[in-house]
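With this grant's support, we have paired protein sequences with backbone structure tokens. One protein thus recorded is set out beneath this paragraph:

_____
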Amino acid sequence: QGYLAQEVKTMSLVHSALLASVQGLPHFQDLIPNGNRVPCSDSDGCSAGHASLGQGEMVCLGLGHISCRGGEMLDTGLGSFGSDFEDAGHDWSKVCSLDSDKDGLSNGEELGDPCCTWKKGSVPTALMMAMVPTHPGKKTHFNSSHRFQKANCRTQGKAQAQHAESSISAFHRGEERRAMDFRISDYVIPCVRDSLVDFGFNFEDETHEKFHVVFGEMLVDQQAYLHHVTIFACTTRFPLEVLGRALPVSSLQNCSKMIGGWNPGATPLPTPSFAGIAIGPGAGVLGLRLNVHYMNLNATSGVVTHDGLRLHYTPNLRAHELNLFGVSLLQLTQDPQLRIPPGKSRFFINRACKLVGPPNVSTNLAFAGFHAHFLGREMYSVVRFANGTEQDLGSMPRWRSDSQEVRDLLSLGLQLHAGDELQGTCVFDSTSRTTFTSLSEAATDEMCWIYYATWPAEASLQCEGPIWTGQLLETESAYELLKSHPPPSSRQAWNARTTLSGDAGEPLTVETVRKVRVISLYGASLTELSTVLSAVIAVLLCVARCWPCRLLVWVEINFPLCCRFLQRPFFCKRL
């Protein structure tokens, strides 16, 4: 009870911070040019760089803060550049010409945009990528060669500094703009810490057979209670009397395809300028199911909500259709075998897999998405192509659960093919916990999702490869886990045969995870004798209904096999 009370207090503080002006969000680096390429000259808070992004060995990802570590959940330690950026409403065009650190160079000159032409989503120019940017908030981080003659911006310099902008989640000029609201009707949030509720809505526009969703907009009524929303496509319509009201699971059989979602800091259903998400009778989508996670931390009664989703769409079909979950690397939502131990500052869940699919099938990368709960701190994603080259795919060495916008990969111009290898890692900080953390749906549980939005929507590539866990050292890079922490060295490793399933091709849920084959349970740190001994103890405890295992923490740590059986009573029946 004491532990839960502390968790509720901590999450209440976090939600209070979210209701105020949020600072230090990781996606701010996407709002400035070269926001992830400034070399780190600070002994505190440096992050490992990746050559494919034009980064050095170590980079500074907290340019707005006093430390390169950036802002923690409740931290407000802004530096001079961060203060100017915040005062400008996080608008680069308003701070580009300023000299925040008074070193004689404008912020634009330091970050590779001397003529202040860069916009979010722009394709970096050769000038921007060739220069080594300097810190716009540290006077000592200075390079006089960056000084750019202003007159050049009116002639050849401006042409050199021009940026090709890619429009994300926006209508084209000439596209017909339509919008439809889906509002929850007078729902009373339960007086429990976590509740998952489904609501059904019909797509009522029948003027065309098919439309393209351009983007979604979350209509948040009760911000302090809304944790996340998952959006599913429905192939049939709902009766009028149930629209916007809580529905039983039994009424949702025709709403199983997940097409999007919303988390704090994210845009629901984002799209690039040339692709949309199909909806309407011609797409087989007649309605939407919103699966909503409410979190009532203080068990407050009588809270009525009208949260909802606004769908921005057009009848002018775009050239391509987007699948927001085209390739899924990790989608761990409920897994009783995989738990995060307490007191670990960099506990990781990793997957390395090879893409398999029909011959000559390829898919184009638009975005990368990451998802975890309050313990999530770092996210990594890398592709190794069949020709041996490697490319980072939107990794976030500084990640926060209140900033879950997708990562734009469009400027990379990448295609995935069968035979390419993906590696993704979720890193968690459990030093605030005193007990194991489960992978499940409650806010105090955890998840690990890494996925890629791709086009064309029908392209099919699946991931085959193992999942394993371990602990990183404080200064250790997460990019080389296959070398530094290979699966055989892990206490927990599974052969997750496909992207979303175990060996039997079923989703990784509580009921089917039993079929996932354990590759290496203990690793090199335990002898064969201890493995046999732990198995014997596990069987004996199963016969005794396993209840002593909960009373003995040392058994839980040293004989995890036992406690996996504890969480799986069906195994006793099988024995």
Observations:
- The mean pLDDT is 79.
- The two ends are 35 Å apart (CA to CA).
